[in-house]
Inverse folding.
């Protein structure tokens, strides 16, 4: 018996070539000095069927494995494993061939940025690695081909509600959105409850005076209980998106924030801005609100509504009316922030935005956040 047949069914077999079980059959025929006709007579198959079996043109079935065990030796498991390895290898080579034709698709995506973030494994990008990269990218998006990516993600562009005119790199944007989806897929929770969500937002506002180590777990818990998925994803430079609000399905909204080096005033405004989209625009469940509210004027009524709601949620209109007469001192801002229950950095950011305070003043009252990211 050949060394290959003697390995048994449990031995690993990982050839770097396509070798059908017929190669092993031929080896055993040579050892016995049998012809294919003699093997066919012993197996009870026609010579044509045996020839096709040897060439891998017909699958090696359970029945054939049992007959081969009786005639040539080795176990049924060995022959079935040999067949499975052959078919798997064929599938891998076929996929590699098809992925070679898909290589131009890679140009649509920020591959190096994705490697830097750990979304794709770091590797040299060359002609040999590109087909493999295609497969890794398809796996990342959870699609079978670029055509399916286009139907699932590229057409999503029709639902984009942009707050910046330069949010035009659809490849980068869909990568960032998918990073959030992959994180959200790991979360389980109840269906969305608007009442609970509003209550959660009121509690979250009271957490603005605390540090990330304290507020983040409470924030996640409150949103989870309200049926809102909340993820923080590393920034992807070419996407020009710092936050997004969208519905993953009819019962599951998602708030996704980037991990730019945010100061607390921008972080909290971004969060409440996205929350506003969920509350105010819940009928637009197919819309994807791409936001960078700190960088440019809003381009839509929805963005203006979300900006206004976020401003009022953090500092109520009656309180905001007092800002014009507030002394421009650290002590006065701290006292005012304490009286309304928000962090002083939020007050400074609001005053600077409204032109009541020079953008260079009192920035020491702001706090820079650093979060641990779970790469999607």
């Amino acid at each position: 018996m050949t060394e290959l047949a003697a390995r048994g069914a449990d031995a690993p077999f990982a050839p770097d070539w396509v070798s059908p079980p017929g190669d092993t059959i031929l080896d055993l025929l040579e050892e016995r000095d049998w012809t294919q006709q003699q093997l066919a007579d012993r197996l009870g198959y026609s010579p044509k069927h045996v020839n096709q079996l040897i060439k891998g043109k017909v699958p090696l079935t359970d029945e054939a494995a049992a007959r081969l065990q009786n005639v040539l030796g080795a176990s049924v498991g060995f022959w079935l494993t040999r067949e499975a390895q052959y078919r798997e290898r064929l599938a891998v080579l076929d996929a590699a061939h098809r992925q070679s034709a898909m290589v131009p698709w890679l140009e649509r995506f920020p591959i190096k940025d994705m490697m830097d973030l750990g979304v794709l494994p770091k590797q040299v990008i060359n002609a040999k690695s590109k087909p493999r990269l295609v497969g890794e990218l398809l796996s990342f998006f959870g699609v079978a081909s670029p055509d399916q990516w286009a139907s699932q993600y590229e057409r999503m562009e029709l639902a984009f509600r942009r707050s910046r005119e330069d949010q035009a790199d659809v490849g980068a944007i869909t990568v960032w959105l998918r990073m959030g989806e992959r994180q959200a897929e790991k979360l389980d929770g109840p269906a969305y409850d608007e009442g609970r969500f509003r209550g959660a937002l009121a509690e979250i506002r009271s957490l603005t005076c605390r540090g990330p180590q304290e507020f983040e777990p409470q924030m996640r818990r409150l949103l989870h209980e309200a049926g809102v998925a909340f993820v923080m994803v590393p920034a992807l430079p070419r996407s020009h998106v710092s936050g997004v609000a969208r519905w993953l399905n009819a019962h599951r909204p998602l708030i996704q924030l980037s991990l730019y080096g945010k100061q607390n005033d921008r972080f909290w405004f971004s969060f409440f801005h996205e929350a506003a989209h969920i509350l105010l625009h819940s009928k637009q469940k197919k819309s994807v609100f791409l936001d960078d509210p700190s960088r440019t004027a809003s381009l839509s009524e929805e963005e203006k509504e979300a900006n206004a709601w976020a401003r009022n949620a953090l500092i109520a209109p009656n309180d905001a009316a007092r800002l014009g007469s507030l002394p421009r001192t650290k002590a006065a801002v701290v006292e005012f922030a304490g009286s309304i229950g928000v962090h002083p950095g939020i007050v400074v950011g609001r005053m600077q935005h409204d032109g009541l305070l020079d953008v260079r003043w009192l920035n020491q009252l702001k706090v820079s956040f650093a979060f641990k990211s779970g790469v999607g």
Summary: Confidence is low (pLDDT under 50) at residues 1-15, 162-167. The chain is about 50% helix and 5% strand.
